[in-house]
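Bumping with the actual sequence this time:
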Amino acid sequence: MKLSIPDTIAAITPYPPGKPIEELEREYGISNSIKLASNENPLGPSPLAIGAISKALKNLHRYPDGSGHYLVRAIAEHYGVEPEQVVLGNGSNEIIEFLVKAFVEPGDDVITSHPSFLMYQKFVQIRGGVNHVVALSNMSHDLAAISDRAGERTKLIFLDNPNNPTGSYLPRHRLLDFLDRLPEHILVVLDEAYVDFMDETLRIDTTSLLPPRSGRCGVVSLRTFSKAYGLAGLRVGFGLMAPEVAACLHKVRQPFNVNQLALVGASAALQDQFFYQETLRITEEGKKTLMAGVERLGCRSFPSQTNFFLIDVGGDATTLYEAMLRQGVIVRSMKAYGYPNYIRINVGTAAENGRFLETLQSCLAECGYA
């Protein structure tokens, strides 16, 4: 066989997902490990979602509702938009793919930040678009530099707000001023995967930015059920946007892109406000405990409006990561993101948080960082 691989595909490095706990335990010969590396919900999935999924199992021989009728309407009601403004995805990352497919042609420009979610750039590469990557400034999106970079061929700008991996956020006045400066042919995509964890006084009502307005760029909001609702394994997210934008995305969306269990689980989770609020409470309390704990150990923690935060460990992050892994505590080294001395952790249960701090203290001493 002799393959003819397009240059755009050959140049892509596959996305490196975090390894599951089971694989790491086999690889390192450890057991009873805890994982604080993937920003998952420590409480598990919504109990209402589990119940709804259990009832739906008997219907797995049927195709799912290709339109996601009930979930779309539940989301629309919850966020105060019209059903025509909602697009469902197999995770919110699929909505990113839809946007690039629908609006980016070979040679078109897309602007992203670094560090940020790697899949923005990979989808653009697949389409033959041109990635323009702007470095974060003081761990936040450099809106002035992004605005200066935008031009006639710019189709999309991706901004994760809050940002992953830094946990920083965009103040409302800065974002609105930025949107007003952009040409109206550009779509700004606000990836709000972690917005549920933000201080409510700092959140931006992005639904008010969705209606088309003459002279201003378009806005799309991306959301997910993976984090605050604990449904990462189901892969279900959605986008909120103007109906004209949604109509374009439906043209490139495959039928049945969200499976039946994801549809019923997400619908139930959206109604489980007790679980949702408990997740936010546990996360905020745990974050305060963890930040205070790492500071006592001589490390520096960074403010975050998410369920995770960065820690400057004062030495090579990957060396510390491996030391902690051997003790069954899985964190994320930020060396590949341009922060060689930083690790990132998400908030766990109280027991997991305590074990992390104990292991961090031990491994800091082992590595000679403390």
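The tokens above came from a reply further down the thread. The mean pLDDT is 95.
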